[in-house]
Automatic annotation (TrEMBL):
Keywords from the named record: Membrane, Transmembrane, Transmembrane helix
Protein name: HflK protein
InterPro entries recorded: Band_7 (IPR001107), Band_7/SPFH_dom_sf (IPR036013)
Domain Band as annotated: residue spans: 46-211
Length: 287
């Protein structure tokens, strides 16, 4: 409204300065120019705006409303009828100390959630158009969306999975869900953190007992596999040894045995022998 009044006053001053009553026409004299220059400069000041660093400018016009084309940081030009609103694009943070989540098996889990986000520069007009300021979005919308995203994912898992082996999977799905929800609002999700999840002492004990039982099963399975492997190794070794013996047996002839005996014999006759009728016929062994 102030800008409109200023424009109207400038036009009025220009008319009074330039209008010649005697000639009944507009006449541009040097005096008129010097009078009009300050007013024109003042009017042009409404056409230049500075968008601070780490901000995005939102153009609003009394004639066309909110523009979807945003202004980058730095100097920008506008019409005197436009108003520019700045929204920060730095990373913002919202912590929800207690979020209640219901699981697939109708159990309730509480958690602390931290959301880091920033306004998308191209879609910042959505934030202004729907919430006017970033604080409104931060205080009301972020927490609601975070709880809805996590709750939507958690209802697909039982409580033991939520607090146990499926925890990382739930984090990933919750992040994707929240990111999609915030994108529709002109906001980018930087990081979602879920911590201090708690379902009560009874559930925690059940999870601990299940972990111990699972570890025992895994240990028993490992022992079974090891025993099976050892047995298979023994069978393979036995088969290999039997096969080796067969091959060796085929190769051991009488001649080879005598050669091996003679190779190890030191040439001395035995000191103890049988009666005179007992003789060893080596020639028979050489055949």
């Amino acid at each position: 409204m102030f800008q409109i009044i200023t424009i109207a006053l400038t036009v009025l001053v220009a008319w009074i300065t330039l209008y010649d009553r005697e000639e009944r026409s507009i006449y541009l004299s040097k005096k008129a120019v010097w009078i009009l220059v300050p007013f024109i400069a003042f009017l042009l000041s409404f056409c230049i705006v500075k968008v601070p660093s780490n901000n995005v400018g939102i153009r609003w016009s009394i004639l066309s409303g909110t523009s979807e084309k945003t202004l980058n940081e730095g100097i920008a030009f506008k019409t005197p009828l436009d108003q520019i609103y700045c929204i920060p694009t730095t990373v913002e943070e919202r912590t929800i100390k207690k979020v209640n989540i219901q699981t697939k098996d109708a159990q309730f889990v509480t958690a602390q959630v931290n959301v880091k986000f920033r306004v998308n520069q191209k879609d910042a007009f959505k934030v202004y158009k729907r919430y006017t300021t970033l604080d409104t979005l931060k205080k009301n919308i972020i927490s609601n969306y975070a709880q809805k995203a996590i709750g939507t994912v958690a209802t697909q898992y039982n409580v033991i999975d939520v607090l146990g082996s499926k925890k990382n999977e739930i984090y990933d799905l919750s992040t994707k869900t929240l990111s999609k929800m915030l994108k529709s609002e002109g906001v980018e999700l930087v990081q979602l953190t879920i911590k201090d999840m708690n379902a009560g002492s009874e559930i925690e004990k059940a999870i601990a007992d299940e972990a111990v039982a699972k570890k025992r099963v895994e240990t028993a399975e490992q022992n079974r596999l090891k025993a099976q492997k050892d047995a298979e190794t023994k069978i393979i070794n036995a088969k290999a040894e039997a096969e080796s013996n067969k091959i060796l047996e085929k190769r051991l002839t009488n001649k080879l045995l005598v050669q091996q005996y003679l190779k190890k014999w030191d040439g001395k006759l035995p000191t103890v022998s049988g009666d005179g009728n007992t003789m060893i016929d080596i020639s028979q062994l050489m055949k």
